[in-house]
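Example for tutorial group B:
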C-alpha cells in the first residue's frame, strides 16, 4: 500500500512543501530560507535549503544557477559535518550532470552520493543516487547493465511503500521495454505507474507516465487522437508546476506522434519548439532528439536529400560522442527509413 507522495529533496524548514509545489514557489521559499540560514551561520540548514534551490533551478532549466547552488549546498553540508546532506548535494550535482549530457561526471557524483548516503545512514538518498546511476545507464542505452538495478530498486521502493520512487522505477523499466519493442509490457508498466502516481498525488510522475502511454498508443496502435489527448493532460500538469524539462519532452513527443501520423508540418513546428526549449536550458539529449525529429520532418517535406543525409551523419556522430548509443542508432536507422543509405550506395 502506497502513501501520499513526498519530496525528500525538500528538507529542513522546507519539508512542508508538497511534491506538487510550483518550482517558482519552491525557489522563492528555498532562497528565503537559505539567506536566513546563512545570516544565522546555520550551515546544516543552509545545505538543506540550498538543495531545494539547486533542484528548483535545475528543473526550471537554469543550469548555471543550479550548478552554483548544489556546490554551495555541499560546502555548507561539509562545514556542518552532515554526511547525509553532503550526499544529497552530490545527488543533485550528479542529476544535473546527467541532464547536461556529462555522463561520466554524473556516474562519479552519483556513486559518491550513494556511498555517502550509506555512510550517513540515509537510505533514501542512497536509493535516489542508485536510481540516478540506473537512469544514466538507461539513457545511454546500457539496458542489460542497468535492468537488474532498476528491478532491485523497484522491489525496495515497493517494500517501503514509496510511491514516487516506485513510479520512477516502473517508468524506467517500461522505457527499456518500449525501446526494445516489448510494447504490451511497456504499456502495462506505464499504466501501473500512472495509477500509483494518481493515487499518491504525484503529478510529476503522473505526467511522465502519461507521456509514456501516449508514445505506446501512438507507435503500437496508431491512435493519434488518444495519444494527443494524453499529452495534453500531461502538459497541464507540467505547466502548473513549471516543469520546463518535462514540458519540452512533452512537446518533442507530440512531434513524434504527429510525425507517425504523417502530419509533417505540424510535427516540424513541434520539434522546432522543443529544440528551442532544450537549447535554452542546455539539455543536449533533448536537443539532439528534437533535431533528429526535425531533420526527418523536413526531409518528408521535400528538403534536399544530400543535405538531410549529411545532417543525419553529423547528428549520429554527435550522439555517439555524447554517449547516447540508443539515440545514435535511431539517427543511423533514419538513413534507411528515408531511403538515403540505399541511394548513397547507388
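The residue assignment follows.
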Amino acid at each position: 500500500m502506497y502513501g501520499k507522495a513526498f519530496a525528500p529533496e525538500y528538507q529542513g524548514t522546507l519539508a512542508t512543501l508538497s511534491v506538487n509545489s510550483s518550482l517558482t514557489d519552491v525557489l522563492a521559499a528555498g532562497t528565503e530560507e537559505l539567506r536566513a540560514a546563512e545570516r544565522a551561520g546555520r550551515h546544516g540548514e543552509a545545505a538543506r535549503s540550498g538543495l531545494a534551490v539547486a533542484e528548483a533551478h535545475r528543473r526550471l532549466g537554469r543550469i548555471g544557477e543550479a550548478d552554483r547552488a548544489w556546490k554551495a549546498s555541499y560546502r555548507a553540508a561539509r562545514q556542518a559535518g552532515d554526511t547525509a546532506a553532503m550526499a544529497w548535494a552530490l545527488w543533485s550535482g550528479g542529476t544535473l550532470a546527467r541532464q547536461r549530457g556529462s555522463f561520466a561526471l554524473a556516474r562519479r557524483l552519483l556513486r559518491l552520493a550513494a556511498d555517502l548516503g550509506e555512510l550517513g545512514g540515509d537510505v533514501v538518498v542512497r536509493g535516489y543516487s542508485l536510481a540516478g546511476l540506473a537512469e544514466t545507464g538507461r539513457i545511454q542505452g546500457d539496458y542489460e547493465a542497468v535492468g537488474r538495478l532498476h528491478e532491485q530498486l523497484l522491489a525496495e521502493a515497493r517494500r517501503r511503500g514509496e510511491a514516487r520512487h516506485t513510479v520512477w522505477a516502473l517508468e524506467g523499466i517500461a522505457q527499456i521495454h518500449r525501446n526494445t519493442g516489448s510494447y504490451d509490457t511497456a504499456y502495462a508498466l506505464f499504466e501501473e505507474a500512472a495509477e500509483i502516481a494518481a493515487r499518491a498525488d504525484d503529478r510529476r510522475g503522473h505526467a511522465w507516465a502519461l507521456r509514456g502511454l501516449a508514445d505506446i498508443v501512438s507507435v503500437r496502435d496508431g491512435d493519434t487522437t488518444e495519444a494527443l489527448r494524453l499529452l495534453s493532460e500531461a502538459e497541464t500538469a507540467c505547466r502548473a508546476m513549471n516543469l520546463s524539462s518535462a514540458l519540452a519532452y512533452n512537446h518533442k513527443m507530440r512531434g513524434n506522434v504527429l510525425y507517425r501520423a504523417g502530419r509533417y508540418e505540424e510535427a516540424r513546428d513541434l520539434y522546432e519548439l522543443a529544440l528551442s526549449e532544450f537549447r535554452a536550458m542546455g539539455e543536449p539529449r533533448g536537443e539532439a532528439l528534437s533535431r533528429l525529429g526535425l531533420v526527418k520532418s523536413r526531409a518528408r517535406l521535400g528538403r534536399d536529400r544530400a543535405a538531410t543525409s549529411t545532417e543525419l551523419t553529423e547528428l549520429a556522430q554527435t550522439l555517439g560522442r555524447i554517449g547516447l548509443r540508443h539515440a545514435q542508432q535511431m539517427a543511423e536507422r533514419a538513413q534507411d527509413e528515408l531511403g538515403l543509405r540505399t541511394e548513397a550506395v547507388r
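The mean pLDDT is 93. Compare this with the pattern of hydrophobic and polar residues in the output above.
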